[in-house]
């Protein structure tokens, strides 16, 4: 029967532990690189979105009103599905559309 000395066995175990730690470190580095790429892509998407929204507002000021209506609808939906009930004025839901409409009409009439 072939037996190995304690030092040899310890060296083999240390080598296996070192290999596992190297693989773990490699995985951590790869994950960090993927996270970095993901953050860059997300930032580029957000920048493009902001640019497109800016262009939409410049081309059609009513776009802001549309976004306010969409936000109001989302708020109303969230509140409607809430377990507790609240009483809010339409101003709290960003529904002061008559003021927005009058402002948009007045500003477009001055051009």
Automatic annotation (TrEMBL):
Main localization of the protein described in the UniProt heading: membrane
Lipoprotein in keyword set: no
Lineage per the UniProt record: Eukaryota, Viridiplantae, Streptophyta, Embryophyta, Tracheophyta
Top-level taxon in the UniProt lineage: Eukaryota
InterPro entries reported for this sequence: Prohibitin
Key words of the record: Membrane, Mitochondrion, Mitochondrion inner membrane
CC per GO annotation: mitochondrial inner membrane
Similarity comment text for this entry: Belongs to the prohibitin family.
Compartmental location: Membrane; Mitochondrion inner membrane
Protein name: Prohibitin
Biological-process GO terms, alphabetical: mitochondrion organization
């Amino acid at each position: 029967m072939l037996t190995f000395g304690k030092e040899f066995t310890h060296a083999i175990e240390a080598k296996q532990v070192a290999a596992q730690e190297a693989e773990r470190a490699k995985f951590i580095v790869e994950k960090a690189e993927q996270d970095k790429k993901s953050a860059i892509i997300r930032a580029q998407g957000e920048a493009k979105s902001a640019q497109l929204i800016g262009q939409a507002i410049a081309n059609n000021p009513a776009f802001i009103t549309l976004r306010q209506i969409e936000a109001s609808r989302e708020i109303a939906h969230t509140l409607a599905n809430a377990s507790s009930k609240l009483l809010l004025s339409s101003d709290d839901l960003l529904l002061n559309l008559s003021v927005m409409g009058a402002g948009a009409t007045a500003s477009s009439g001055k051009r």
